Amino acid sequence: MASMSSGDESLRLCVFDLRRGQTEGQELDKILFFHPPELDVSTQLSVTGLSEGLITFTRLFSPEAACEVIEAERHSHVFFEAETDIWMVMVVEKNKDTGAIWRIDALRGMLKEVHSLFVMFHGSVRALLEKEPTGGLTRAQLYPFITDYLSTFQKRSRSEDWCCDLFVGKKLQLPNFRETTLSERGTVQMLTLARDTALEVQSLVQVLDSCAGNLQCLSMILFQDLLVSTTLSPDDTVNLFTFAVMRLTSQALLSSDASSWSHLRKGTGSSETSSRSTSGSIDSLHHVIRPLQNDKWKKGKDGFLVTDIWGLETGGSPDPAIPIVWLQETQERVYLLAYQYKSLTLLLLLPETDIVNGGLSAVKQQVIEQASLRIMKIEEKISRGWGGENAYHVKGYRYLVVDTDLEVSRASPSGKVATLAKESLLALNKLREEVDLEKSRAKRQERDLEICIRAKNNAWVIARVSRDKELYMALEKASDTLLDATDAVGRFSNRYCSGAFLMD
Amino acid sequence: MPSSSQTSVGSGALSHAYIQHPSLRCNVPESRGLFYDDANRLLICVTSSQVFSWETATFNPDVSPSVDSIPEGPILSVRFSLDKKVIAVQRSDCEIQFFHRETKQTLTHKCRAGSESLLGFFWSDSPLCDLAVVKTSGMDLFACDSAMNLRLVETKKVNVNWYIYTHESRLVLLASGLQCKTITGFQLSTAGVVRLPKFEMTLASTESNSKPIISAGDVHLVTVYGRIYCVQVDMEAMLLHTYRFYRDAVVQQGSLPIYSSKLSVSVVDNLLLVHQIDAKVVIIYDLFVDSRAPVSAPLPLLWRGYQGSDTSPQAASKENESPESSTSSENIVMYEDAWTFLVPDLILDQTNKVLWRVHLDLEAISASSSDRTSLLEFLQRRKLEANKAKQLCLGIARALILERRPATQVTQAIDVLVTAYSYSVKAGIYKELKNGKTTATIPTNDGASPDNERGRASGSSLDEEEEEVEMNLPSGPADEQQESQLSSPAISPDELYKFVFASVEEMMVEESDYLVAIITEFLRSISAEKLKVDLNIYVMTIRLLARSKRFAELSLFTANKIIEPSKEVALQLLESGGQDPRVRKLGLDMLRQLSLHHEYISSLVQDGYYLEALRYAQKRKVTSVRSSLFLEAAFASNDMQHLAAILRVLSELIPGFKETSEYYTFHGLLNETSSSVAV
C-alpha cells in the first residue's frame, strides 16, 4: 500500500486494545481503528507501538493513570483510556501559523465524547470484542462511527462542499481554539425557564411518561439546541443531548440536505457498509450501522422523526426501524423515539424488553393524542419568552461558566465570541490549559483558583475555579485595571452565577 | 356504635335527602288553619281570634310562638308586613283586613264586588310599593305609610286566572288564557318594578280537542345560585319544563322527566329536589350544570331521628328527655296528601301539624357518585353544609391518590379544587378559619346505618382511611355552629397540602414518583391561578424526589424554581443530600442565593470546605459562626498552614479574638506542632 501520509499528517487517531496481538507478528490485531485509513501498515504499527510503549512505561510510575499527553516538538499525542486496556490516541500537528493550536483537554474531550456516543449506540467496545473475537465487527462499526463523528466538525466549518459519503483521503479538521476556548464538551446547555413554563413542561413530562402506560418512559426535551427537561441521569443526558444537537434538533434537520433524503427513498442507501479494515478482511457480512451518519433523519407526517439508518422494521414492515440505545445509568437497552414540533424536540426512551409487538406505535399514538396539544402550547410559550440566539449574551463579557458536577455549561453565543481578538482567545486558551493542569494536579482537593492575566492586546483573561464551578472570561477593555476586571467578574458572578465565585 | 334503628326509619334504606327530628310543632288547639308567610319565613296557625306565628328560619322547636289577637272572622290567608308590624288577613274574595300589632289599629280594604275578585296579596320591599294585591282584573300596587294608609300607586291590567309569587325571587307570575299558559311576570325588586316579557308555557296535548289547563300548583318558582327559574308540570308529556328568567327574556331550558302524577319541588342548597309524590321518591337536579341529568338516582325521602353524627350518649338522652320527641315514626307517612311543600325547603304536614325541613345527605350523594371530578365540582358548589362538603372533598382527593388513580384523573380533581378556591377568594366568599379545630375535622363515618350501606356501595377504601385518622368531630349543636361559620367549602392550597398530600405521604412511600407527578400538577394548578402554597410542600417534594433518586428532576425543579427557594427547602436539600453530594450542593447554592450567610458558612465547614467558608465569612463580615468550627476543621485536616491562616483571619475578623481562650488553645497547638509557621 502506497504511503499517502503527506496530506494527512495533521491528524492521526487510533483505537487499540492492549489485550490483543500480544504475540509477535500479530501486532496488527491490536488496532481497532486507525485514521487516516490509507496510511501504510508499518506507520500505523509504529504509532500504536509508540503509544503502547509510552503507556507501559508510564504505568510503572502511575499504575492508576498512565500517560495523558506527550508533547513532541511538532506533535501532541493525546491519550485516553476509554475502557480498560482500550486506548484512544490522537496525534495532532502543532502549527501556530495555520492556527493548529490545541488545548489537550478539549481534544481528550472529543475522544471521550465519541467513545460515549459509540457505547450509547453499540455498547462497550469490550463487549463487542467479546461477542465477535476476530474484531471484525468492532472495526466495521468503529470505522464509520468515528469518521461520521469527525465529519461533524468538517461540516460546521465548510458546509458548502460537504459530502455525506465516507470520505477517503479527505483532510479532517478538528475544532480549533476559536471554537473550543469558550465552550465545554461533555456538558449540556440549559434553557432557563420561567416558573410557570417550567411547571407546564414538567406536566408535559408526566403526560409523556403516562403515554407509555405502565412502562417506565424516560424523556428529554430540547428547545432548539438547549435542554429544557430531562429525566435521565446526568451522563445519559449529556450523551443523548450531544447526539440530539448533532443530528436531531430542528437546526440539525434544517441543515441536512434534502437531496440525500431522496437518495434514501430510492432505496439505494443501504446501511450495509463495507469498510476497509486494518486486518484486511472484508466485513460486508457484518450489519454495520452508522448512527452518526448525517442527513439521515427526517420529520415524518405524524411529527416523529424517522431514519433508515437502522434499516427496516422486521417482519416485512415498510416502516423504518426504531433506533435502540444503551443507557449508561441502568445498562438498559431502550428504544429512542424522537418527536418534533417546530423548535421543540422530544426524546422518549422506552425499555426494549418491555415493548411488545406494536407497542411503540401505540405509544406514538398516545403521544399524538395526549401530548401534541400541550407540546404545541409549550413550544409557543417558550418561543415567546425566548430571547433568540443572543439570549445569554452578557454585554461586555465573553464568558464560559461550567458546572462540572451537574455537567452543565453556559457560554457567550458563538457569534459574540467570534468578535474577540485572536490574541485574547489564544491567551484564554493558554490560561485554560494551565487551569486544566492545575485541576488535574489538585484532584480531590479543595480547588479554589483565581487567575487574571493581561494579554498582549491588553485584554484581561480570567479564570475562576470554585470547587465544581468554573468561570472563564475575556474582557477586552484595554483601559481597565486589574481592580476593574475583578469587579466585573464579581458583578457577573453575583448576577449570573448566584454568587458562586467570590472575588477578593 | 349507636344502634341504627334508633336513628332512622327503615334502617338500611338509602336516601339522598331526608327530614329530621326535631320538627317544628304547630299544634294549637282549635286551629283553623296553617299558613306560611314566605317573606318573613313565618309559620302561621290561626284560631278564630288568634294568630300564632313561629320563626322557621331558626327552626328552633323549643321557642314558643308569638301570639296576636285579631277580630274573629274567616281567614283565607295571612301575611305579616315585612317589618312585621302589620298583620294582613284576607277575609274573602273581596276583602283584606290590616291589623297594626302595636297600635291595634284596623283597616279594611275592599275591591269592587262582582266585577273582580281578590286572588291574593303580598308585601313588597320595592321602592315603589309596599303591598301588591292580585285580582282577576290585574294587580294593584299600594304604598302603605306608618299610619296604615293605603295609597294606590299603580295598576297592572291583566286578566288573571291565578298567580304565584315567592319573596326570594320577588317575582310574581300572572297566568291568563283559556289554558292558563300565558304568563305575565313582574319583578318587584328593590331596583323597582320590572315587567318581564310575556311568554307561553309549553303544554303538550295528545288529542286535538283536549285542552289541558295549567293550575297554580303546576308551576313553581325556583331560586338557585342567584338565578330564577320556573318549573312547570306538563302532565300530558310527563315532563317538567324549566324556564330561566333574564331581565329581558324568558328562555326555556329543557325538560326533566316526570314519574308521578303528583309532583312538587323543594330547593335545598341551590339544588332542585323534585318530589315524585306517587312514587315516593325524590330526584335531585343541579341546574348549574348544563346537563339535565339528575345528581343521583331517585331515592325515597328518609325520616331520621336525630342527626346521624350526633348520636352521642348525651344527644340520645336529651332526645329521651324531651317531651317533644314523641313524634314516633308511626305517625309519619311519607308524602301523604296533607303534605304541603313550602318555599324553599320546608314541608308542612297538615295532619300531624308539624313542619319539616328537607336536608341533603351529602355523604350519601358522594358515595353514590362515580364521576369524582363532577362530584367535587358539585360539592364545591355547596354552601349549606360547607364544612361537610369540604371534608368530603378532602376525603375524595385523598382517596383518589391512595387508590392510585391515573394522574390525569387526580389532576382534574385538583384543578377543580384549586379553581374553586381561587374563585371563592376572588369573590370574597372564602375566609380563612382561625379555629384549628374545625379545619382539623375529618369526614367521619357517623355510624348511622345508611353510612354503612354507602361504605359498601363505594368500595371500602374511604372508610378504612377514615378510621386511621383521628376523629375530631364535635357533637350536634357545636358542629352546626362551626358549619355555619364556614361559608364556602373551598379548600386552600395550604389545606390541600396539609390534609391531602402530607397525610398520604407516609402511605405512598413506594410510589413517590406518582406523588411527585401529582404534586407537580398541583403546583402547576396553583401557579396558573397565581396562588401561594405552604413551603412545606416543596420540602416534601424534595424528600420524594431524593427518595426515588431522581436527581435530574430535583436539579431542574430547583433551577427553574418550581421548588421555590427558602431556608427550609435549602435545609431539606442539605439533608437529602446525605447520599448525593450534588443534591447537597443544590442546598448550599440555595443558602448562598438567599444570603443565609450563617447557615451557608456552617454547612461549608461541615462539608470540609473550611477555607472557602472562612473566605466567605471574611468577605461578608459574618461573625456569627463559631470560630472554633473553622479551627477544629483545620486542625482535624492536620494542615498547620491552614490553621495558622485561619487564626490570622479570625484575629482580623473578630475584634478581641486574640484575647479568647480559643485563640490561646489553637495558637498553642500550632506552636507545639510546628514552630516554623509564623502567625
Number of strands of chain B: 29
Gyration radius of chain A, in Å:
24 Å
Helices of chain B, by number, come to: 21
Pair of chains with the largest interface and how many residues each contributes: A-B, 33 and 36 residues
The largest pleated sheet of chain B is described as: 6 strands, mixed
Helix content of chain A: 25-40%
Fold and architecture overview:
Chain A: Belongs to the CCZ1 family. Chain A: Residues 267-281 have a biased composition (Low complexity). Chain A: This is CCZ1/INTU/HSP4 first Longin domain-containing protein. Chain A: Residues 14-123 form the CCZ1/INTU/HSP4 first Longin domain. The complex is a heterodimer of chains A (504) and B (679). Chain A is of the alpha+beta class. Chain A has helices spanning 41-61, 104-122, 125-131, 136-157, 177-180, 195-211, 234-248, 250-255, 258-265, 359-385, 414-417, 422-441, 482-496; strands spanning 11-17, 31-35, 69-71, 75-83, 86-93, 218-223, 226-230, 297-299, 305-307, 324-327, 332-341, 344-351, 398-403, 408-411, 448-454, 460-466, 469-475. In chain A, the strands form four sheets. A five-stranded antiparallel beta sheet of chain A has the order 2-1-5-4-3, with helices on both faces. Chain A has a five-stranded antiparallel beta sheet with strand order 7-6-12-11-10, sandwiched between helices. In chain A, strands 14-13-17-16-15 form a five-stranded antiparallel beta sheet, with helices on both faces. In chain B, a hairpin with a 4-residue loop joins strand 20 (227-234) and strand 21. The longest helix of chain B is centred in the middle third of the chain and has 20 residues, at 407-426. Mean pLDDT of chain B is 81; it is low at 1-11, 308-330 and 434-484. The interface between A and B is medium-sized, with 33 and 36 residues.
